[in-house]
Amino acid sequence: MTDLDSVAASLGTRPPAARRNAKGMDVPTPATAAPPEPGAREASEARRTARAAASRWAGTRARLGSAAKRSAALVVLVALWEFLPRSGLVDRVFVPPLSEDLAAGYELLRNGQLAEHLRASLIRSLAGFGLAIALAIPLGLAIGWYRPVAELLNPVLELFRNTSPVALLPVFALILGIGETNKIVFVLYACSWPILLNTIGGVRTVEPLLIKSARSMGLGPLRLFQKVILPAAVPTIFTGVRLAGAYSILVLLFAEMVGAKAGLGYLIQASQSNFRITDMYAGIITISALGLAFNQVLVVVERRFSTWRTT
């Protein structure tokens, strides 16, 4: 019996059983892992659940904080719009409180006038915008990729890109009349330039190393354009598309103010002429909401076509 065994015997306890090796020496038996206590697993699971809940709450707080920062200026604008006319600091005859403008917009929506004007504007805007995309993107790709096409068309493009669409509106009215065709062509002309110029720029600014690498791997002109040039130019093209989306609303309003019997531009102009100020602001708010929604749709479409980008 070893000294340790003697001490253990005197204390009434036994040391862990020892094994003997090949030389007859005692080798302590490794302690076996104690089985988990009945409540240990539940406690561990509760700690993981608590950490996950804390992480989710931290993410929610971060998102709420970011949203609050982004909307702070808008909240201040809304508050000032409501407070200043009511306090008399601003003449409420010309700038009614926001709540009165929203009430007027609700009344226009309820009696169907707002839907009628909104539908007329949307049809004209989307028609001109869609035609601009269909025409300007292929033309921009051709000009940006084929030098002979660029040399042929550049003088004409430089001439017309510096001509304001508003200056050409009387010309469109003389040639096309004052009907729907005039307004759609007006929107088409205004929207074509940002799309066309950004498409040309997107093609011409593709990283030359990408083109050399693709050619070194044996890609032909068509595959090179399809696999390298077009994807690389997509972000710049969509920049032009988003600009054109905003133009499609802005220039249409101008056309509807000078020659239309329906549309948001006509609503604003007619309301101002008849001194229905709240209806005028209701039309302006509707246009702002429409432009914001249009831009968000284009952002979603851009992300859909640019999923390969990492930044």
UniProtKB/TrEMBL annotation:
Residues 1-48 are annotated as: Disordered. It is found in: Cell membrane. GO terms for cellular component: plasma membrane. Pfam families: BPD_transp_1 (PF00528). It is a multi-pass membrane protein. It comes from the Bacteria. Residues 118-302 form the ABC transmembrane type-1 domain. InterPro entries: MetI-like, MetI-like_sf. SUPFAM superfamilies: MetI-like. Belongs to the binding-protein-dependent transport system permease family. This is NitT/TauT family transport system permease protein. The lineage of its organism: Bacteria, Bacillati, Actinomycetota, Actinomycetes, Streptosporangiales.
